[in-house]
Amino acid sequence: MSKSDTQAQVQTVVAQCRELFVRKLHDYGPSWRIMRASSLTDQIYIKAGRIRTLQQVGERCVDEGIEPEFVGIINYGLVAMIQLERGAVDHPDISCEVALECYDRQLERTLELMRAKNHDYGEAWRQMRLSSLVDLILTKIYRTKQIEDLGGETLASEGIEANYMDMVNYAIFALVKLQQ
Questions:
Q1: Average pLDDT of the segment spanning 120-124
Q2: DSSP labels for 73-84?
Q3: DSSP string spanning 113-135?
Q4: Is the predicted pLDDT of residue 177 greater than 80, yes or no?
């Protein structure tokens, strides 16, 4: 797979995620501005946990597969990064246009990290199992929860934002793999 193929696949996936974000922004506005980052971590946990359960059990009771859950991880992860940057508020305080600008900025920063790591790791994710990507997301969630419990103080780790970026990127990789 060439670098341009990967870029095209990633762009297809992120365009789908962004389109859903735009539609929900229309329906709900930036109501998520009230959420604390730790609540968003828990939302991502719910999504990743459901994927793992569906992978292990092999059947579902709710008529929704794992792809929408990965989209949720991506969008909640980007919202979490916005909240880290801007802080949670008591009432939504930005327009839909500003919310989308914030989303796009966090997405671009996250994709820059993906491109750098993808270069250095030689697209190793393509050889990984989907279950491993889910386990890595869950590991990043538990790391984030621990850092949150420590009040953000770390001794050796990259911190909360880096973990969110990795969660988003692993979920993008998973969607690329699912759509192949």
A1: 92
A2: HHHHHHHHHHHH
A3: HHHHHHHHHTTGGGGS-HHHHHH
A4: yes
Comparing CA positions, the residue from 68, 82, 80 lying closest to residue 174 is 68
**Rama region for 49: left / alpha / beta (φ>0; ψ in -120 to 50; rest):** alpha
Question: Which is more confidently placed, 61 or 82?
Answer: 82
Q: How far from 129 is each of 105, 122, 167, 170, CA to CA, in Å? A: 30, 16, 16, 11
Token pair for 18: 């962004």
- Cα pseudo-dihedral 113, 33, 15, 141, rounded to 10: 50
29: left (phi over 0), alpha (psi -120 to 50) or beta: left
% the chain with pLDDT above 90: 89
pLDDT-derived band at 1, boundaries 50, 70, 90? low
Q: Kindly tell me the burial class for residue 36, based on how many C-beta atoms sit within 10 Å of its own C-beta (0-12, 13-18, 19 or more).
A: middle
